[in-house]
Amino acid sequence: MAALSRSDAQRRVDDIRIFRDELSRVEAEGVLRLEGAQRAALDRHHDTLLADLKAAFDVDRDSTAKQLSLGMRVASFIGALALAASVFFLFYNFWGYLPTPAQVAIVIGVALGSLLATVAIGRHDATGYFTKLAAMVTFACFVLDLSMLGQIFNITPSDKALLPWAALAFLLAYAYELRLLQVAGILCLCAFIAARVGTWSGMYWIYFGERPEDFFPAALLILLVPCAFDQSRFAGFAATYRICGMLALFLPMLVLANWGSTSYLDLDRNLVQGLYQTLGFVGTAGFIWLGTRRDWKDVSNTGVALFVIFLYTKLFDWWWDWMPKYVFFLLMALAAVLLLVVFKRLRGALA
Amino acid sequence: MIRARHHATLAGLALIVLTNAVALAGAAFNRSGEPQGTLRLTERELSVPYVWRSKKEDSGLTLQLHWRSLPSERHDSIGYGNVYDEAGSQPEWLDARKMVALGFAAQAPSDVHPVNGTSRYLQQLPREAFIVLELDGPAYQESMRRAEQEAAALEASIKARGPGSPRALERSSPPSELRSRLFAVDAGLDRDALRSKYPDRTKYAIVRGRIRPTTGDHASDAGGAIDSLSAGDINVPLPLRPVFDGLSSRRYGDPGKPAARFDATVVFGQRSEPWLASAARR
């Protein structure tokens, strides 16, 4: 079996289903008719393959199963967050009644134990839902571990804690194909790089959010990861990097486009805002083009969403106060129609 | 995939162990050697948090370190120093020259941006510095002198206008026996230089803190204020918990009762991180 992961297996199952549907259609239209032996061999091969994939990866064999799986994914996401919060509050409930060595032993032991539990669950959980839950708890336990050590020993808060958190999140994300932890890792890494960049200007690291430009190097780095390192073995990972990178690039730009005084640039506030508005429009349009060219739906969709946000915040800024509301909303609708026309033409041109 | 997971598990275990080892080694280093200060404090400087009884879900106890700073007499609008807040006002010593020494850009004559109308000086973000805390020293004596001066002025005002006068109400403040004797008296980037200037480790502790630029009404008022200290909260270990059991915060109330209900020794270690070494009820 060539399938490497659950996502690969699911893709193969989907391909088989589509192939069978189309084969039935062309047979009904009389375009193609397989001989009995050929048809039987093909069906047998596919049935065996589907059974093997189902046994190994618990894949969804039809659309109903797929819908149920989506529900399970949502449930496991909520469960993971709730369980992580539960661990936090459980420890807070009892830690004050424990001597310091016991506090330290428990926070370290729980972090190590939850990692081993994740490994054990991962061996028996073909669906991956329970593993995701356990991995999230492991990450939460590690965050709790370092936070509690900081509180117990009154350690000065440091941005360096973000690095091991990011490292563990990435380790778990790649080992178990968990995009939720990939996002956690990206967020930690992004915050660390932004904090480091911020300290170059001399400020204390915790204020890195005050200067949105601090996020730009982190955003570029995150965008470059899927170009530099092949992510094809991990379904959806490249798209997650691209989406997170775009958000890390354009959300700070959106802030600067509206509050120019938060910029490092010692220029007229309106000029800074105009500069970042232009960069926002040009940049998002560029990503839409790139996404369409490379067939990166994630990039083009995120680009469109960000472009619309840039456009509507600007329209609101310009017209909300002095324009009757019915005219304002009419113009918004016209802008939406204009965008539809532009995207339709773009799609036609690139088709 | 199984092999990759095996490697990831080993790497994860190593990461958790190594990170904890680094954190614990840092804590051990902080508590080794000669500390940066050993201060004998009372409830005036350390308070049980106001909300800790209502924080039913958190069984831990953290004491808050209370410190003050002495503004120049000209800006001391409340009188006797910064009474209520640890942060906020501009200490007299944290002037423009000191701010430059701490790494801030000086306030230029053309400080206000010609178009934006904002102060370039004030737009600088807080920086970290070492801050000297003085216990029961000249700064505290000066605050007492100002307090007495203010009390005399208040008494005269009440006599002149009557006890219910707005001025009398406006000037009411916490009783002096509740006010902290711990004052921020200096700051710098070189801890050793500060230590040689303030060698008495039982009176002066050097801690880390954040400083931000401030300005007054005039250009000459440019200076800074202490935003916060890293050593603002101090965890109470289990053996010392009985000392604080049953105590509720009464920092701004209960006049007439003895202010300090406990004594505590706080040690500031090699990394300027504090810990509660001992505590006893009075």
Give a description of the structure.
- The complex is a heterodimer of chains A (351) and B (282).
- Chain A is mainly alpha-helical and 351 residues long.
- Chain A contains twelve helices and no strands.
- Chain A has helices at residues 6-28, 36-57, 63-94, 100-124, 129-152, 162-176, 179-199, 215-228, 237-258, 269-294, 297-319, 325-350.
- In chain A, helix 5 (129-152) packs antiparallel against helix 6 (162-176).
- The radius of gyration of chain A is 25 Å and the shape is flat.
- In chain A, 34% of the residues are buried.
- Mean pLDDT of chain B is 82; it is low at 79-85 and 168-172.
- Chain B is of the alpha+beta class and 282 residues long.
- The N and C termini of chain B lie far apart (64 Å).
- Chain B has helices at 2-30, 96-101, 138-161, 166-170, 191-197, 241-244; strands at 37-42, 46-47, 62-65, 127-135, 182-188, 204-214, 223-229, 233-235, 262-268, 274-281.
- In chain B, the strands form three sheets. Chain B has a four-stranded antiparallel beta sheet. A three-stranded antiparallel beta sheet of chain B has the order 1-9-10, with no helix packed on it. A three-stranded antiparallel beta sheet of chain B has the order 2-3-8, with no helix packed on it.
- The interface between A and B is large, with 54 and 53 residues.
